[in-house]
Amino acid sequence: MRRFYLSLVVLLVAMTVAFAQKTEAPDQGVEVQSSESSASSVVTEEKEVKAVEGITYNDGNMDYASGDVKFVIEARDEGSGVKTVYVMVDDSDFGIYENPIGFLEEGKHLIGYKVEDNVGNMSKVKFYEFILDKTAPEVMLASDKKPVKIGDVLYVGKDYNFGIFAHDALSGVKSVQYSIDEGEMKEYEGPFAPVETAGLHKVEYLAIDNVGNSSIKKAYIYYLDINAPTVEFVINPEPFEKDGVKYISDKTPVVIKASDAETGVARIVYSIDDGEEKDYQYPIRLTAGTHKITAKAIDLLGNESETISIELTVDASVPEAELVPTK
Fold it and tell me: Which residues does residue 49 pair with via DSSP β-bridges, in sequence order?
């Protein structure tokens, strides 16, 4: 029975040690007692894994490294001196460390290492965990209003604003840069308006993450339309003018025409005698009397023409005649 309890105690201790190793080993910088170390072993290490090539970045929780990173392990011993450094990578076995360590596959990696001195003392096993980030950020440019697309050209108005949005799933976005019309690249700090000159323009932009991965430079080409439509009244037959008054028949239609050289006309609005504005859809016919018509046109980007007006007098009275005998 004593043997049974003794065996049970040994088993529990072994399970406890194994559980501790399994749960603590992945954490960066956690030391785990090696099965090869003894209570009298003394090895002093001042440096852990160090990157000698590439870029590393810590977000406060995890280290990230660029795809070209190389790690070295530096160790020293205050007594007899370092004899051998042993290293394991991910799920490999321990081997002798000789050259800087590089990685090809993106994702999480684990470096384990231990040091033996010249009298056989073995350090504790230490682990360094990091994520290899080889993927550039995703970046896009968008406007706060929908552009008007005609053919392959995107038209925008002067009241538009552009924003550049970037996302990086690993080390995170460090910098977003852009240039306008082949100008110098500058840091993006917030939404910006189009240049003030009408015509074709280009915005180039990119994003860089915290380990130096850069997205491909993208281009957003747009046409700035700041020109308003033109609008006019077309009356056929033309009004008869007498003493500064323009006369038309009650059968004469008043047509409003508008044109826009860039995006096109979206609406024509008009009012009669300072009344409510209405959308123009078909020729206007006026009733007898004097009337004032005002009108303006709006293009697809919201540019408005000047308001025009005309005053017309509708002569709906039928002329009369009588035969007068002459002497």
Answer: 73
Comparing CA positions, the residue from 201, 206, 138 lying closest to residue 176 is: 206
Distance CA 87, CA 59 (A): 26
pTM of the model: 0.74
Question: How far from each other are the two terminal CA atoms of the chain, in whole angstroms?
Answer: 162
Class of domain 230-314: mainly beta
Q: Cis ω on the peptide bond leading into residue 237 (within 30° of 0)?
A: yes
CA distance 34 to 31: 9
Q: Under a CB-based contact definition with an 8 Å cutoff, are residues 167 and 137 in contact?
A: yes
Amino acid at 40: S
Mean pLDDT, 10 residues at a time, over the chain (327 residues)? 37 35 32 34 56 95 97 93 96 95 97 96 95 98 96 95 98 98 97 95 98 98 97 97 96 97 96 97 96 98 97 91 84
Q: Contact 72/52 with Cβ under 8 angstroms?
A: yes
Cβ–Cβ under 8 Å, residues 210 and 172:
yes
CATH of domain 28-133: 2.60.40.10
